[in-house]
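debug: dumping io for the single-chain case to check the tokenizer round-trip. Nothing else runs in this session.
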Amino acid sequence: MTQQLLGEILAGTMFVGIIGVLLLGFPVAFSLAGTALLFGTLGMYLGVFDPSNFGSLANRYIGTMTNEVLVAVPLFIFMGVMLERTGIAEKLLTTMGRLFGNLRGGLGISVILVGALLAASTGVVGATVVTMGLISLPAMLRAGYDPKLASGVICASGTLGQIIPPSTVLIFMGDMLSGINAQVQMQKGNFAPEPVSVGALFAGAFIPGLLLVALYIGWMVFKAITDPRSCPATPVPEAERQQLMGEIMSALVPALTLIVAVLGSILAGIATPTEAASVGSVGAMLLAAVKRQLNLRVLRETVISTATISSMVFIILFGAAVFSIVFRLMGGDNLVHEFLTSMPGGAIGATILVMLIMFVLGFILDTFEIIFIVIPITAPILLGLGVDPIWLGVAVGVNLQTSFLTPPFGFSLFYLRGVAPPQVTTSMIYRGVIPFVLLQAVAIAGLFAWPELATWLPRMLYH
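debug: decoded output
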């Protein structure tokens, strides 16, 4: 057996082994690093891995910590947590629900629209699902909504934070794809490749995100027409209508202003994602102060929550860096390259296979864990086959959002199960999300059929 073959066998075994370790419930970051060190030591004794390669970890870690683009991640998390802790998100939900209450399915449409607004102002999926589950689900049940439909709408709307900018997932993918694309293009002899920026990835995700919102609303309209008893109207009393417009303006205008200031400045090229995230964080505090919801307790809770979430994400990234080094330098790159390039259908066949693998991994791993493991391994091959990096980032985002929704392991289902009342059973939640999973599949098929959905806007804005 040659050293190359032995290294590839070890790399493949390590990839399978890490899945098994994670299924046992060990912390992800330490599982990634620990398993990689174990196989790296074994590879060292077998002569297929040089431990001096770990010396590059220090530079990689320092590069991550000094990366200005990634500073946007804790800032966007802070903005989202601040909006959630100060009740601004709750006010938006209740007010929009009253606005559309006179229509059949109107309460469901309001949940979808608020989910999109929260996604565009926070990018934190778990917090969005929990917030809407606590506020909207009881209101929808009181209004006579079918528990299955109500659960499906809330889970689907909450996961829009995966794809609608400023998604923290897209920030990490944009940073990774930028470096990977530069390396691939240099290997092809193109020493002046077009840069892949986080702003361009945000622009690429904008139209697919709106498409998903439109598909969700279309389903609610369909249900309102074909099964009106599942989503009855909730008319607002005449006495409340006069003051309703004032409440709508008070709740909606500040949130829209914040979204336009943050997302608009990025897409228009006025500010970098990090600069826009800074503006968003300050803007969220100003909104809280104007509504008299900002105090030392709220600020302390927001900072602690932001630090906790950010630390979790970055320590997973550091653990994944150890895994990536061992996997690639033991020959895993060659193994993956041979496997993907031998797939029928060329680049499309290879991309579909990677999407299926990531979809299945979404049942047991969080989004960040998946992109930190799979993107560095597979993206160089896919980009080398001619796949557009912006399209790939957007397709991965929509794919993982679908995985988040799919029973029986979708993370959003567990988030909602944790806050749903006892009369909403787990089977109701599972059945309720099925139509939205199918709508997600329609969106993914649309991206494959019309790549311009993801590439047209970045080309218009950045070329």
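debug: round-trip ok. The chain has a mean pLDDT of 84.
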